[in-house]
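BUG: 3D viewer hangs when loading the predicted structure for this chain

Environment: internal workstation, default settings.
Expected: structure renders.
Actual: progress bar stalls at 90%.

Input used:
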Amino acid sequence: EVQPQFTLLQKTMGMAEGVGRQLNPNANMWPIARDLASEWADDQGGLLTQISAIADKALAFGMKLPDLLDRAETILNRFDAPPPPPKPDHTVLWVVVTGALAGVIFGVFVI
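Structure tokens produced before the viewer hung:
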């Protein structure tokens, strides 16, 4: 798979070659640029670069692993804990208080 950066580099080099040929028709920049392009390609996607990136990600994951294990243990402990007691239902109390208040207000206005 060709990386987009490489395609952009190739287009830029082609443009530079065109300008160079206008200045000097005998100029050939490709032998000079071959070493630079090879070095750039190795830096961008070479095997060592990929191995280094994988190692960095593995190290970062290793640093997070203790925290992930603690979180997993906390979640598992929640499943083992007994459920909390149900909250008392105050619906009946509210109906009685509302009814009594309505009765008092009705009694004050009627009497």
